[in-house]
What we know:
It is a single chain. By secondary structure, the protein is α+β, with helices and mostly antiparallel strands. 15% of the residues are buried. It has one domain (20-155): Beta Barrel (Lipocalin). The protein is globular. It contains three helices and ten strands.
Amino acid sequence: MKKIILICLTILILSCGSSKTVRDSKKAIKGDWTLTTITYSKTGKYNVTLLNDTSKDCFEGSTWTFIPNNNTGTYTINESSCSTGLRNFAFTIKEVNAENGYYDFLLKPTDEKNQSENNQGFRLKLSSLSETDMQWEQTVSADGLPFLIHMNFTKL
């Protein structure tokens, strides 16, 4: 009987805990980053509003801070011709494929008390992450076809 209880507890603990990929990702993402460039999968000039906030030109050069122990962070728009200032968000890293280590990054804008105004979030693919670089991909639709937005970060 004790063995059964011990096995059940072990399974429960392992199923509730984060995977190694997610833990490693949170360790790597912790800290301060700069969103250096934003590129598109198709050539041309597009009027894209990212994260229901502002344009590509305003986001480039923004600074980001990730605090993985409570899944929160901030970003600051620094471009003087834009609506500058600090924005808050909550985030989650969700493993999509344990075998290949693919994961999604879920980001939800919040206020300074980590409350969401409309409970709307964004699913981004965390396509690349190292100790110094990170890339997100967001798939949107343009003219009824998939369109990728690549956001490239460098750690400060």
